[in-house]
């Protein structure tokens, strides 16, 4: 509740400034704030992943299929869902994509987009 009251007070403090600003200035300020929020969130996520790695949470209890994916990446440098589908014998891309995205969320893999292709490498 205290945070809410603080935010309301801060908004009240800048209200006179916003009333005098033109639309372009307000859009610029909001765009800057949004971009800064994204950078902050990304930095916090990276810090969280580093903390998890230090605790060993990222590589514990990996399924055999995940170990095979990591070995494939060590051999090739990167993989796509199609590569994993072929190497592990999946019938479709959904299973391979799900495994890769799970490893990415755990901070084990890094995701790189190039056009429509998504490549995964070791973090």
Tell me what the structure shows.
The protein is mainly alpha-helical and about 120 residues long. The chain folds into two domains: about 1-55; about 65-120, Winged helix-like DNA-binding domain superfamily/Winged helix DNA-binding domain (Arc Repressor Mutant, subunit A), CATH 1.10.10. It contains five helices and two strands; from the N terminus they run H-H-H-H-H-E-E. It has a two-stranded antiparallel sheet with strand order 1-2. Strand 1 and strand 2 form a beta hairpin.
- Straight-line N-to-C gap: 39 Å
Order of neighbouring strands in the sheet with most strands = 1-2
The helix fraction, in percent, is 55-70%
> Got a strand count?
2
Shape: elongated
Proportion of beta-strand residues: 5-15%
Given as residue ranges, the uncertain stretches (5+ residues, pLDDT < 50) are: none
> What is the name of the CATH architecture of the largest domain?
Orthogonal Bundle
- Please identify which CATH superfamily of the largest domain we are dealing with: Winged helix-like DNA-binding domain superfamily/Winged helix DNA-binding domain
> What's the mean pLDDT score?
84
Radius of gyration: 22 Å
Helix and strand content put the structural class at mainly alpha
CATH class of the largest domain: Mainly Alpha
Please provide the ordered H/E string of secondary-structure elements.
HHHHHEE
Main beta sheet: strand number and arrangement? 2 strands, antiparallel
Please give the count of helices: 5
What is the third-level CATH name, the topology of the largest domain?
Answer: Arc Repressor Mutant, subunit A
- How many structurally independent domains? 2
């Amino acid at each position: 509740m205290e945070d809410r009251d603080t935010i309301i007070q801060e908004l009240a403090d800048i209200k006179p400034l916003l009333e005098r600003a033109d639309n372009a200035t307000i859009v610029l300020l909001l765009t800057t704030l949004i971009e800064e929020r994204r950078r902050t969130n990304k930095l916090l996520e990276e810090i969280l992943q580093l903390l998890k790695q230090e605790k060993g949470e990222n590589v514990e209890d990996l399924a055999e299929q995940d170990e095979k994916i990591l070995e494939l990446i060590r051999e090739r440098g990167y993989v796509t869902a199609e590569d994993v589908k072929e190497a592990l014998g999946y019938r479709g891309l959904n299973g391979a994509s799900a495994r890769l995205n799970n490893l990415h969320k755990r901070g084990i893999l890094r995701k790189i987009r190039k056009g429509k292709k998504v490549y995964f490498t070791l973090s």
